[in-house]
Design goal:
With about 220 residues, this protein is an alpha/beta fold. It has two domains: about 110 residues, 3-Layer(aba) Sandwich (Rossmann fold), CATH 3.40.50.300; about 90 residues, no CATH class. It has eight helices and six strands. β5, α8 and β6 form a beta-alpha-beta unit. α3 runs antiparallel to α4, α3 packs parallel to α5 and α4 crosses α7. It is globular, with a radius of gyration of 17 Å. It starts with 9 loop residues before the first strand and ends with a strand. The relative contact order is 0.18. The mean pLDDT is about 90.
Length: about 220
């Protein structure tokens, strides 16, 4: 376990599909003895269907994700663990809006947004939101490496839409600490020094606002 200060009690790691959110959250949790919250999506029966027929299955997929994320965060964040240093999650509830804005029809999104705003009011916001930026080529390479069959059908255009949606969301925020790290030249999963470098970037005392770092490790 590594000694750290109590600057952040709740950190959320975000990024596009294949950015390495879960891997980084696991590594940090292990290093710091932190409470780990991982998104549970692999059992979602709508996900493979969505990648084959997005228009038909977008709405039930997004609703199911929203319900699952809300219930998990509500339960996990409400239960305190005195033996853990802080909480780290591999997603932020607002990703529900980020994805649905690009996948749903206008009338569907209007209804979805209303439901989201109702439930979002009761959830704790992260003290720091970390966004792992990787270009589409890097994302596709990572997706292929992990080999989930249903993800292999994801198109570059879809990843670009999601990336742009994240950036639109970030631009609109004025009450969160957001750290954007360009990870294109880093392999924090397989290179311990790269991980320690990213770790050192995350555990700095950032002010409210957006902080961008083009990670350069030598």
């Amino acid at each position: 376990m590594t000694n750290i200060d109590n600057t952040y009690q709740f950190i959320a790691i975000e990024g596009n599909i294949g950015a390495g959110k879960t891997s980084l959250a696991k590594l940090i949790a292990e290093k710091c003895n932190a409470k780990l919250i991982l998104e549970e999506f692999e059992d979602n029966s709508f996900l493979p269907k969505f990648y084959k027929d997005p228009e038909r299955f977008a709405f039930p997929l997004e609703l199911s994700f929203l319900a699952e994320r809300f219930q998990q965060l509500k339960d996990k964040l409400a239960s305190k663990d005195m033996f853990k240093t802080f909480t780290i999650a591999d997603y932020f509830i607002n990703k529900s809006l980020i994805f649905s804005r690009k996948t749903l029809q206008t009338d569907e999104f209007k209804l979805y947004n209303t439901l989201f705003e109702i439930i979002n009011q009761s959830l704790i916001k992260p003290d720091l939101l970390v966004y792992l930026y990787a270009n589409v080529d890097t994302l596709q390479s990572n997706i292929k490496k992990r080999g989930r069959d249903y993800e292999l059908e994801i198109k570059d255009e879809y990843l670009e839409k999601i990336q742009n949606s994240y950036f639109e969301f970030i631009k609109q925020q004025n009450n969160l600490r957001i750290l954007i790290i360009d990870t294109n030249n880093l392999d924090f999963v397989n290179n311990k020094e790269h991980f320690e470098y990213i770790y050192s970037l995350i555990f700095k005392d950032y002010s409210v606002g957006v902080h961008r770092i083009e990670a350069k490790y030598e």
